[in-house]
Amino acid sequence: MNFLPGSPRLQLLVAFLVAAVLAFSLGLPWLKTPVLLALSNGLAVTGVIVLIRAGQVSFGHAMFACLSGYGVAFIGRAWHLDALLLIALGTAAAALAGALIGVFMVRYRGIFFGMLNLAFSMVLFSVLGKFGAFTGGTDGLRFDRPSFGFVHLEREGFETALLLLALVLAVLAGMLVQRYFGSVNGQALAAIKTNETRLEYLGLSAKRVFWGGYVLSATLCGLGGSLFALTQGLVTPEMGYWVRSGEIVFIAILGGSGHAVGAFIGAFVFEFMKLYAAALLTGAWQMVLGLILIVMVFVAPRGLFGLVERHLKRAASGERA
Amino acid sequence: MDASLIILALMDGVSYAALLFLVALGLTLIFGVMRILNIAHGSLYAWGGYFAATLGLAITKFALPAWMGLPALFVAALVIGGLLGSILEFALLRRILDKDPVLQLLVTFAAFMVLEDLQRMIWGSQPIFVSDVVNQLGTLSVAGVTYTRYQLLVLPTVAILAFVGLRWFLRSTALGRQVTAVTHHREIATAMGVNTNRVTWLTIAMGGALGALGGALASPTTSFTPGIGADMMVLSFAVVATAGLGQIGGAALAALMIGMARSFAIYLMPEVEVLMPYLIMVAVLLLRPEGLFSTPAARRI
Question: What is the pTM of this model?
C-alpha cells in the first residue's frame, strides 16, 4: 500500500522542495524568518484550499489564525508553557472556534458564506482592538520565548527548532489534506461544489460534510497562526484583519487550489515577492496583488501548481509512450 | 435616556439609513442583473466621497458661487459611478460572467484591492472632510433638538427619490422592463431580443453611481480615510443580505433597521456600535438564511 498520496514524480518534487528549503534556511540564517512565515502562511492556505474544494471561499479565515495566535499569547503569558504545548493549545482553540462558528456557517453558500466569514472576522478584529485592557488593544500582546520540547534555547536554536517543526507539520498537513480529499468525506465535500442536492440523495448530509471541512480548515489556519505567533513573539489584531484573509485566498489562487503542494509553492512565492516587491513598491502592494490575482484568474486559474502539474503529467505520459 | 436623546438618535438613524440605503441599492441592483456580488462597490463609495470632497475644495478655492456645493455632490457621483462602473464592466465583469462563482468573487475582490491603493495614491491617507454644504444649509429645530437641515431633509429626500425613481424606471419604462427581464433570466431575455450587454452596462453604471452618490452625500458629514470603502462594503452587504439579495424594497427596510440600531447603540452602548450591523445580519440569517424578503428558489437536481 502506498502511504504517500500522489504520483512518484510528485513525491520527488515534494522531497526536492523540502530539501531545498532545509538547505537554504540552514545555509543562510537570515532566510529563517521568511521561510517560517511562508510555512505558517502555507498551513493556513491549505485550510482555505479545503474550502475551495467545496466551491466556497472565505474572506475571513485569518480570524482562526488570529484566535490561535492570541491563544498562544494568553497561555504563554499566563503559564509559560512549552512551545509544543502552546502550538497544540492554540490550534485546539482555533479548532473549537471553527467547530462552533461552523455550525452556523454550514447553512450558507457562495457569497453569503464568504461575506459572513468576513463579518465574523471583522467582529473579532474590532473586539480585539476595543478591549485593550485584556487584549493589549491595537498594539497587541508580546510574550517571552518559551522553551522548546522542555529545553531552553537561544533565539538561533529556537528558530531552527521551530523551522524543522514547521517543515514536518507542513508535510504532514499536506499529506493529511490530500488523504482527506481522497476519502469519502473529501469526495463528498467536492460534491458540494458540483451538486449538493445529488449529494443529499446519496444519503449524506451536505451540512455535516461541510462542517467537517470547515473544522479542518479552521484547524489548519489555527496551526499556521500559532506558528506565526511563536515566530514573531507578538500577536496583533492585524493577524485577523480582512487584508490578511484576502492574502490567504490570494496565495491559494496563486499557488493553485487543486493540491496542497500548491499552497506551499504559493506561500513561498508570495513571501519572497513581499520581501522584494514591498520594499520597491510601498503603498502599491495591494494593487500589485490585485493585478496578479486578476491575471491568474484569466490566464492560469489552476495556479502555479496547475502549470507544474501539466508538466508532470506530460512527462508521465511521455514515459509511457 | 430622555426624550431629546431619543429624537436625536432617531434623526441620526434616519440620515445614516438614507446613505446606507443608497449604497445598498446600487449593490443589490448590480447583483440582480449580473448575479455577481461586486466587492469593488465599497471603493465606488469611497471614490465618490473623495471626489466630492475634491470638488468641494475646488469650489472654495476658485471662489465659485456657494450654491454649487450641493449639485457638485451629484456631479461627483455621476462622474465617478459612470466612469468607474463602466471601466469595471468593460474590463472585468462582462468577461467573468461564465466563470466559476468563486473566481467571480475573487476578481471583484482584486478590483477592490487595486482601487483601494489607487485611491490612497490620489488622495493620500490623511482624513479629508469638507462640510461647507452642511453649514450653508443651516440647522433646524425639531421638538427642541437642533439638527442640520442637510442630514434631516436632504439625505432622506434623496434616498426616497432614488427609491421611487428606480421603481418607476424598472416598472414603467421600456428600458427598465428590459433590465427586469435580464434579472429574471439572462438567456431568455437575449433570445427575446434584449440587448443584454447594453442593459448590463447601463445597470452597472447606474448601480455604481448610486454607490458613489452614497459616498458623495456622506462626504460633508464624515471624514474620509483609507479603509472606509471596506467598512461600507461589509455594511452595505449586511443590508443587502438582511433584506435578501436583489430585493429593492427590502433593502430600504433593512437599511432603516441597521441605521436605527447603530444610532441607538451609539447613545446606549457605544462599545457595541460597530457590532450592531453584524448582530442584526446574523440574527436575521439565523432565522431566514436567504434574507427577510427573498422567495425560495427552486432546487436544481
Answer: 0.84
